[in-house]
Amino acid sequence: MFDTLSDRLESVFTSLRGKGRLSEADIDATAREIRIALLEADVALPVVREFIAAIKDRARGAAVSQALNPAQQVIKIVNEELVAILGGETRQLSLAKTPPTVVMLAGLQGAGKTTLAGKLARWLKQQRHAPLLVAADLQRPNAVDQLKVVGGQAGVDVFAPEPGNGVGDPVGVARDAIEHARRMGHDIVVVDTAGRLGIDAEMMAQAVAIRDAVSPDETLFVVDAMIGQDAVNTAEAFRDGVGFTGVVLTKLDGDARGGAALSVAKVTGRPIMFASTGEKLDDFDVFHPERMASRILGMGDMLTLIEQAERTFEADEAERMAEKMLGGGELTLEDFLEQMMMVRRMGPIGNLLGMLPGMGQMKEAIASIDDKDLDRIAAIIRSMTPAERHDPKILNGSRRLRIARGSGTTVTEVNRLVERFYEARKMMKQMAGSMPGMRRPSNRKSAKGKKGTSKRGRTSMGSGGLPPNLALPPGLKLPPGLNPDLSNLKLPGTD
Questions:
Q1: Is 193 left (phi over 0), alpha (psi -120 to 50) or beta?
Q2: Are the beta carbons of 63 and 5 closer than 8 angstroms?
Q3: Measured by CB atoms within 10 angstroms of the end CB, which terminus of the chain is less buried, N or C?
């Protein structure tokens, strides 16, 4: 997402590197390039003007820090201003003092309201709520059936007393849903309303009638992020016609420019609360302005990556694996498969790598990653017997041929997997013995003068650090509580 904008901003910052001080001409030239980048991203003109004015004022008025070069200073200013136009801070759902909390969804047809309703309900369920989906879109063909399907996929109840397809009273359905929720113990009601291909009086009147009937605690405007600046015009029409308390961006993964995200909050004065980034029900999360700004500037999104890992990895399994590695136990191919599947459940590998700092410079390499490679590896391991997974040393030629045939691969691919597994296991052992806080428990004292070397004489940690392409971008500061000194992190085999 936002690839075009990120690339343009990166070129702007690159041109500043090596300068000792920012002259007036440098500031004007940089502001002009950023302005062009934002306009190409289809950001609303009033937002661009305000954004550029703020950057120029701060760049001229700020004292040049000795610790920061001009590029770093500009990145810092741009980052803070991006956070501001994206909403400033994360906004949570406002819950009613007396359940149920009513959340009404509004937006044009095609914005993804019905699918979004399922995603929101699933997310609420994960937050230990008991949501109820309400099928109040009775105009669009099969809208009721679609909501039932996504509700079933999300594992939540759906209130759909009317068949839809033009039959039924949506206002009555929404009103009855509140009483139904009280009787059945649902603490949150999510009302899916009808949309149109464009703004019209009938749609607005129906949305207003539903709003007046259920008095929603939150009215969320659902907008397709891919429509760019048009999203702003639609949002303003809904704000004035129906009113809403927050914005939900859908199809954010397909928005290479970023015009909608960078415009809608500033123009409407309503915060972006959630973002949908894919087709799956799990591709949905709270919108964090500071994290999005960081991703736009190529600084990664480590907090989101950590949260995804926490949701995916089983704590008991992770602890068992860590103890096995640190305690000197041998990791097996079965362990390797388990960890790989956990990583796969976090989402596409390319998306995960894109959250790492500095990976913006490797977009082509990341885009070429095929998740099917993981499926092939899994097929190879699953074609092995339990004994072979536990001890790959017993894999002779005939066994490897059998595994290749059983997994639909070649013997070469099986050999390559086994070799990489041994390499990975060695690396984990080296890191376990060398990284601070990850030393293996042992009663043996190291021989004097041999600290930092293995039995084979290999240096377990080199004196280098992160490769240049993995270095943190200039000006990056990790969030509070997440401040490892990555400059001192050593990798095996580096000099």
A1: beta
A2: no
A3: C
CATH superfamily, region 3-85: SRP54, nucleotide-binding domain (1.20.120.140)
Residue 494: alpha-carbon gap to chain centroid: 31
**HSE of 64, CA atoms in CB hemisphere, 13 A:** 11
* Residue 187, token pair as written in the block: 């603490």
User: What is the three-class DSSP state of 29?
Assistant: helix
d(C-alpha 419, C-alpha 339), whole Å:
18
| First vs last C-alpha separation in the chain | 36
- List of long-range contacts for 152-157, beta carbons under 8 Å, 24+ apart: 153/118, 153/122, 153/281, 154/118, 154/119, 154/121, 154/122, 154/125, 154/281, 155/122, 155/125, 156/118, 156/121, 156/122, 156/125, 156/131, 156/132, 157/132, 157/133, 157/184, 157/186
Largest separation between any pair of C-alpha atoms in the chain: 84
241, 268 in Cβ contact below 8 A?
no
Q: Does domain 311-437+464-488 have CATH number 1.20.1200.10?
A: no
C-alpha torsion sign, points 235, 236, 241, 246: positive
Q: Give 381's contacts (C-beta < 8 A, 6+ positions apart).
A: 333, 334, 336, 337, 389, 417
pTM across the whole model: 0.66
Which parts of 62-187 are beta strand (E)? Answer: 101-106, 131-135, 157-159
Q: Of 15-29, 68-82, 242-256, 437-451, where does mean pLDDT reach its minimum?
A: 437-451
For 54, 89, 193, 342, the CA distances from 84, given in Å and listed in that order, are: 11, 8, 31, 35
Which value, to the nearest 10 degrees, does the dihedral of the CA atoms of residues 485, 488, 489, 494 take? 160
Q: Residue 451: pLDDT band by 50, 70, 90 thresholds?
A: very low
Which amino acid, 238?
F
Mean pLDDT, all residues of the chain: 77
CA separation for the pair 179, 183 (Å, rounded): 6
- CB-based contact 194:138 (threshold 8 Å): yes
pLDDT exceeds 80 at position 30: yes
Long-range contacts of 14-21 (CB under 8 A, 24+ apart): 14/71, 16/69, 16/70, 16/71, 16/74, 17/69, 17/70, 17/71, 17/474, 19/69, 19/70, 19/71, 20/70, 21/64, 21/70
